[in-house]
Design a protein that fits this description.
Blueprint lengths: L1 E4 L5 E6 L11 E2 L3 E2 L7 E6 L10 E5 L3 E5 L2 H12 L5 E6 L9 E5 L4 H14 L1
Antiparallel strand pairs: 1-2, 2-9, 3-4, 5-6, 5-8, 6-7, 8-9
Length: 128
């Protein structure tokens, strides 16, 4: 997971998508074939506070139809409170993967990614 603040002031974070093997990712759809989005495709990050495993859960969806997986627990813990507070977050396929577990990455863009950016900067300053 990494994040950068772009010249336009928008926070950007790249994250792996968790749980691909449990949802639609890589499965065959009768209309589109394998459910593997392309680089640059828009994703939806949907809060899932009723998730029995993680109250900060954030589902990752594609085409408002397919559930691909979830943000990893650490990323969700950072993003969820900001989404709940109304902060904006856009998401795009960074690396589409090959249909296997942990092969898909998403690029998160917007104010709700600021916590991920701050965590990255903190880790980097501690490494020196």
């Amino acid at each position: 997971m990494g994040a950068t603040t772009a010249a336009d002031g928008e926070c950007r974070a790249s994250v792996w998508i968790a749980g691909l093997q449990f949802y639609d990712y890589g499965r065959d759809d009768e209309i589109i074939g394998p459910v593997i989005p392309r680089a640059g495709d828009r994703l939806q990050i949907v809060r899932d506070p009723g998730n029995p495993y993680d109250r900060n859960a954030c589902r990752v969806e594609w085409r408002n139809r397919f559930v691909l997986g979830h943000l990893p627990r650490e990323a969700a813990a950072s993003v969820a409170p900001l989404l709940d507070a109304g902060k904006r977050l856009s998401a795009f396929v960074h690396k589409p993967g090959d249909g296997s577990v942990w092969s898909l990455t998403a690029l998160l863009v917007g104010p709700a990614a600021e916590g991920l950016d701050a965590a990255r900067r903190s880790r980097e300053s501690g490494e020196r």
